[in-house]
Description:
The protein has helices at 29-38, 53-61, 80-90, 112-122, 175-179, 205-219, and strands spanning 3-8, 23-24, 27-28, 45-50, 65-68, 97-100, 127-134, 139-142, 145-148, 163-174, 189-192. Helices cover 28% and strands 25% of the residues. The strands form 3 sheets. It has a 7-stranded mixed sheet with strand order 5-4-1-6-10-7-11, with helices on both faces. Strands 2-3 form a two-stranded antiparallel sheet. It is built from 6 helices and 11 strands. It has one domain (3-135, 165-219): Spore Coat Polysaccharide Biosynthesis Protein SpsA, Chain A. The chain is α/β, with parallel strands linked by helices.
Amino acid sequence: MKTIAIIPARGGSKRLPGKNSMLLGGIPLVAHSILYAQADSRIDAVYVSTDDTEIKKIAIAYGVQVIDRPQHLAGDLEPTVTALKHVLESLESKPETVVLLQPTNPLRPKDLLQNALEIYEKGRYESLFTVTQSHQKLGKIKEDKFIPFNYEPGQRSQDLEPLYFENGLLYICKSELILNDTIISKEAYPMLIDHPFGSVDIDTLEDFDYAVYLHKKHTL
Length: 220
């Protein structure tokens, strides 16, 4: 196998219990990422890493392989890379490239994966991740005072110095990086995404409701 997709979908969620099994447009949240990976012919196999029986049933129903995640790798504080590493260590044959698709980012532009893989391969990058520009006036609060971070008081929003955030839509990296506990390397390519889907990362019911709204708007 040259390229695989891994979807880490644990069952526990304190703020939105059972979110990865919730229906978005009649399809379980985790299945959106499964279908997205299956639509690209360059993905040789799709794996779902989970500790949850319902998610496992969904993944099997959609025709992908399930890697049972042990409980010690399924806690709230466990980093994503450990689930990816566990999948790779469970495989007899190691792939060259891993595409990480998070189930909490179910909405992605149609051609995003294709374009990302082309950039990744042509640039010979060891990792790639997607980012979106922030248009917010950011700052921090210290000793009850607001300290602006990326602007001067009174400055127009359109004149802000460009800042970007990791939107979580997708990640691509060499499997060797994951086996060394890394997803985004120091030389990773930041792929800029200017699309409303870049602001969707489901962690609360409000996030889910926003995803429902965008899904309806962009699929009608």
